[in-house]
Amino acid sequence: MKHAILLAAALMAAPALAKEHQVKMLNQGKDGAMVFEPAVVKAMPGDTVKFLATNPGHNAQTIPGMLPDGEAEQKGAMGKEFVLTVKSPGLYGIKCLPHYSMGMVAVVQVGKGPSANLAAAQGVKLPPLAKKRMDAYLAQVK
């Protein structure tokens, strides 16, 4: 009985440590058309970032080359919620595939900066509008 109580207490305490961050996928937001809001998320290892579908025309997925070492690319379905569980410290670049060329990108910084993969993330080739926004977002995660 004592072990069951300790196990139950441990299981209830663990989720309290992780935090859920919510990001909306929007046609129009405070930064203009085709945006994630917020576009910069600061999280800790073990947190989740939930990308909320506000209409069927968006998705969220990681950007190749903009992930911490050892992290696999992830892709959400069109018009569906996408949950990114961040395990490793560093930067996770995010895009909406249909609106990538229109600058629909975001960045998730995991852990306290500076991020080990910042230089690699800055070196990833992006479409011009996506690069303009991503450069501004990366300037916020130093």
Automatic annotation (TrEMBL):
Blue (type 1) copper domain segment(s): 24-110
Alphabetized GO MF terms: copper ion binding; electron transfer activity
Positions bound to Cu cation: 58, 96, 99, 104
Secretion signal, residue range per the UniProt entry: 1-18
A Pfam family that the UniProt record links to this protein: Copper-bind
SUPFAM superfamilies in UniProt: Cupredoxins
CDD domains cross-referenced by the UniProt entry: Pseudoazurin (cd04218)
Compartments, record wording: Periplasm
Cellular component GO terms, alphabetical: periplasmic space
UniProt name for this protein: Pseudoazurin
Native organism taxonomy: Bacteria, Pseudomonadati, Pseudomonadota, Alphaproteobacteria, Sphingomonadales
